[in-house]
Every structure is written in structure tokens, then in C-alpha cells.
Amino acid sequence: MTKKILITGITGQVGSQLADYVLENTSFEVIGMMRWQEPMDNLYHLTQRINRKDRISVYYADLNDYAALSRMIKAVKPDFISHLAAQSYPKTSFDIPIETLQTNIIGTANLLESIRQQKEADGYDPVIHVCSSSEVYGRAEPGVALAEDTPFHGASPYSISKIGTDYLGRFYGEAYGMRTFITRMGTHSGPRRSDVFFESTVAKQIALIEAGLQDPVIKVGNLSSTRTFQDARDAVRAYFLLLEASAQGKIARGEYFNIAGEEAYQLPEVIDLLLEMSTRNDITVATDTDRLRPIDADYQMFDNTKIRTAIDWKPEIPVRKMFEDLLNHWRDEIAKGKIPLNR
User: Fold this and answer.
1) What is the CATH number for 93?
2) Which residue, 300, 99, 106, is CA-closest to 184?
3) Radius of gyration of the chain (CA)
4) 128: which strand partners?
5) Is 235 a domain residue?
6) Which of 76, 133, 242, 246 could crosslink 251 through cysteines, CB 3.0-4.6 Å?
7) Residue 308: which residues within 8 A CB-CB, separation 6 or more?
8) 167 phi, psi to nearest 5 deg
9) Residue 308, helix vs strand vs coil
């Protein structure tokens, strides 16, 4: 019987790229959970397959609607679940803290509880990937490599919501014997990265400037951060390998892993790298106070030892290639007439 994987948040960068990976590398059927009004930009290349139900389909539900989630789990009964749906923008979470906490904590509890209820009803026992975030570590001490046992220090409503998500994934694994595991992915980027994130908004602004749609000034917020970067296409490969390892009983229930790049940059270096790729040589950089957060996670370096002992994985796509693909993504979008907001 064909295995099925449910991807919540399939319309996002990571969700859509996980769908691509599964379709290209397995015979699994992909079910993507999305809200009916979500933009389909990241899935347009798959819409013909979705229309034909060629190993991929969509299911409309919302994390805040427990009844809808319960119906979905009962109807679909996927073998694997990768829970990626979230309010995922740290800066935005300062403006909508209650929605962020509601969606990410209560929404995750709704999903896990609907699975638990089905498990009690008929023994249903899928492998469940709960996506947390490296933002749980918050304001880390400079020079400290973040390992899985590093204490949490929430630095935004988003990071606090992901601390709750993280603990829920562990709790349902340990308390109810559900096959959960949790990932804390570091900064990731590449094609389809939302323009609200630093390196993507810089690349987007460069593409707008090249197209004559913005004055040659890149607007940025805090540039004091140092962090590792990785391509999201590498990260989704780690996600899938962990799903397989969990299915084979190689991962303890409720286990948690960092997934991070191994190339580190200060944010001004990221700007310089992207500017090197531009067709313009007259671009300057200016601070925009509207882009500043009340508090920032300024230093994020990671220890990947744990995940590399669990699965055969390491980042393979060079960061320079990742940034080049990101810039070309925005150039392509703008060339199609999709003029993004300047944010």
C-alpha cells in the first residue's frame, strides 16, 4: 500500500520544498494541509499534478479549528506527518503576539490531540515531525555553540510560541507514546523564502532596484547579528531522513534535534555577498527604524553533532549558491510582473 505523508503548511517555502523532495525521491502520496485563502505561489509548479491528484492533493483546514483537524486525520490517516504550519515571522509576532501564540501553541496542541484521540479510537500511530525553531534559544551568549541542551531564552512572541510547540512535541511523545520528534532549524533560505526575512528582503530589494522599481538604497534593520545559514532544500532532506529513522525505531519518542548550516556570516557580509551578484554598482544601505525589533537573537551558532549521529546528513548546497538562487528567484518573480511590497 502506498505510504502517505501529510504536510501542514505546504504553501510555505519549506513545506513546498518538502513536497518537491518527497515527490522526486519516493513513491509516497503527499497531502498538503492549507487554509483555503492562502496564496498558491509556491505550489504553482505542482498545480497540474494537484488537479489530476497525481500523488499530491490538498486538504483545507486550519490549526485553530480542532473539529476540522480531527476530520482530516480520520479521513486521511497519513503514515507520516510533518507539521510545518505556523505564524512564522518573528518581527510580525511583536505586532500580533496573541495570534502567534494561539496558532503556534494551541494550534499544535489541536493537531496532536486530534491524532491522540484517533490513536485511542483505533490504534492509529503515525510518525509525527513537529517543527520548532532555533529561535527557542533566543539571546544566546556570543561564542557559545548552541546544542540541544542549551537553555531556552525567548526573544520574541514567536520564539516563546515555538518553545511551547517544542515542549508539546516532547510531551505527546513521552506521555502518550506517540512517535513524535522535534526539529529546531537554524536560519535557512533559498528560492521561495518569504520577503519578511532579512536576506530575502535584501535580495528582493536588489532585484527591484535592478528593475528600476526602487531607488538604489537597501533598507535594513539590525545588522549586528551573526548566524549560520543553510539552504532549505538541505533542511527538508534532513526532515525526511528523520521521518524514516523514526519509522524504523531509531529515534526515541519525543526526541529533538538542531538542524543548522555550517557556514557563518555577519549580516553585513550577507549584504556584501548579494551586492557582488548585482548588475548595479551604485547601491547603498540605510537603516530603517521600522524594521528594528524590540529585542533580537543576535548570535546563533550551532552544534550539529546530535543530528549527524542520528542520520547520514550534512549541508551540501553552498551558501553562495543559495544566495544566488534566492536573488534569481526575486528577479524571476519581478520579471513576471509580480511586484512585491517593499517590506
Assistant:
1) 3.40.50.720
2) 300
3) 20
4) 81, 180
5) yes
6) 246
7) 314
8) -65, -35
9) helix
The residue range of the domain holding 13 is: 4-189+231-259
Residue 198 in any domain: the answer is: no
The reported pTM is 0.94
Mean pLDDT of the chain: 94
* CA angle 140–142–146, rounded 5-degree value: 50
Please state at what angle helix 66-76 crosses helix 107-122, rounded to 10 degrees.
40
Distance CA 122, CA 112 (A): 16
Distance between start and end Cα atoms, the chain: 46
| Distances from the Cα of 172 to the Cα of 83, 102, 117, angstroms | 14, 18, 12
Residue 332 counted as domain residue: no
Residue 134 covered by a domain: yes
Number of domains present in the structure of the chain: 1
| pLDDT tens string 294-338 | 555 566 788 899 999 999 999 999 999 999 999 999 999 999 999
C-alpha cell at 280: 548595479
- CA dist 202 and 271 (Å) reads 7
